[in-house]
């Protein structure tokens, strides 16, 4: 997302060269006779600088470049249609206006500097709330937050499921409702992703240290009389399946595929394999296949996989085989005919405050603008973090880029950006969970392990958190 709005807006509306002999004086020029819909289609194939330069050609093109219809289309191209539709829905709900200022909103998102935190945890002791936990799952699906499982004080797993209806009022205080489903069995370190209006849960670890590789599908239903219900059912898969594991990473792709990577397998061994689960249209059965590529991300646990733009997967951080905390970034493009992992190399000293980037047990959530918001985690000394970082994959090269391009300092300078946090100040934490609303403007964070004791690295010194807070992108003119 490059600046240049003001330059285009104040440019001469005459010819391209500014000498009056440009397109505007050529009444018979074929490009001036192209229908507006076709012009928009052409413009959407161009980078932002070229689109803004197009406004200098003539008055008609200038009006088109600064039109709401074009900028809504640009937002759909760069942010994805689901994000834009959800943003329109929430905006109309709160502002009661008919049209979003798309160009201004695009500039605000591209210049994002800070986030605002709001505590959504009730202090009323009469309410029943989920108990403090870590390594659980938290998802936004069917206008609801769904919380399942996790580990708690004493090293015990949890098997409870909690649901809270949000609707379009993202800043309201939430009321949790416990759902008694009886399945899946209790676990922590599992993954749970959203596919359409369903949840797909995989793996995890129980109290006895048993790793699992079962698959469950959950569906939330809102009844006028029964309230919110959540039903889980096992997913039928063939005999080929990933080895049992926990503390792995997963993401969903186009509501039909689930990708997993790494984790802690049998005998505490960290894994480095990548698997994709393809589900049937009705989510009744699925087929696993392993993605074998070289090179590929080294074995790790406590890392993140995040899907951006529907097909591009970003892997970040975690703890490696030697117990070291990692800060590497890998990309996998799913539509490619030949799937392969590509590492994006960068040097921490070249990034402002980049020395704090290595982490494990963090969250990496897609946000408005097609970027990742990375929050929290812990370093190699188990010092927990409270910082927010944006990882902008639009600044990254394509999967087929040459190594010389991958090492461009100018490119990498734009890849990472630390955001300022204002408002409520939550505890530093790791192994929490975070999820965003469909627009990507509001992020919910629950639980995790927090500091506060003299020796938090010892099992007996772990402190689990039970607060829920909201992180809102601060959009300013």
Automatic annotation (TrEMBL):
Pfam families: F-box-like, Kelch_KLHDC2_KLHL20_DRC7. InterPro entries: F-box-like_dom_sf, F-box_dom, Gal_Oxase/kelch_b-propeller, Kelch-typ_b-propeller. Gene3D superfamilies: 1.20.1280.50, Kelch-type beta propeller. PROSITE patterns: FBOX. Transmembrane segments: none annotated. The keyword Flavoprotein does not apply. Keywords: Kelch repeat. Residues 28-74 form the F-box domain. This is F-box domain-containing protein. It comes from Carya illinoinensis (Pecan).
